[in-house]
């Protein structure tokens, strides 16, 4: 079996980049690619923010539940039991 080794030649097969050529894109091209917000983009952003704000608002049911908890805490044991019976009777199916 014969083993051959590769010895690199001192001359490169690829042409070198000229040192004066910039690696970064030209500033004219970068300015042309930059995009400003259009009217439609601004409207979409405003509507999106409004929807997120609206979806995070406190719910009426949450307020009602909180009020119910406060009232429940202030009641005596007898009043609580009476209230629970009333609520259970409201939840029964009609006969």
What does this entry look like structurally?
The chain is mainly α and 95 residues long. It has a domain of 37 residues. It is 57% helix and 0% strand. The protein has four helices and no strands. The longest helix has 17 residues. The radius of gyration is 38 Å and the shape is elongated.
Could you give a short description of this structure?
The protein has 95 residues and is mainly α.
| Percent helix range | 55-70%
What is the string of SSEs from the N terminus onward? HHHH
Q: Beta fraction of the residues?
A: under 5%
- Distance from N terminus to C terminus (CA atoms, Å) equals 100 Å
Number of strand elements = 0
Largest sheet: none
* Quaternary status: single chain
**Integer average pLDDT:** 76
Features:
4 helices; 95 residues; elongated; 0% strand; mainly alpha
List the helices and strands and how they pair.
Blueprint: H1 27-33, H2 39-55, H3 60-74, H4 77-91
């Amino acid at each position: 079996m014969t083993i051959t080794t590769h010895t690199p030649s001192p001359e490169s097969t690829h042409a070198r980049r000229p040192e004066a050529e910039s690696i970064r894109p030209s500033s004219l091209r970068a300015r042309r690619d930059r995009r400003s917000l259009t009217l439609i983009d601004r409207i979409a952003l405003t509507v999106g923010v409004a929807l997120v704000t609206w979806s995070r608002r406190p719910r009426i049911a949450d307020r009602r539940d909180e009020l119910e908890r406060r009232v429940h805490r202030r009641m005596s044991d007898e009043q609580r039991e009476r209230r629970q019976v009333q609520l259970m009777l409201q939840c029964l199916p009609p006969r």
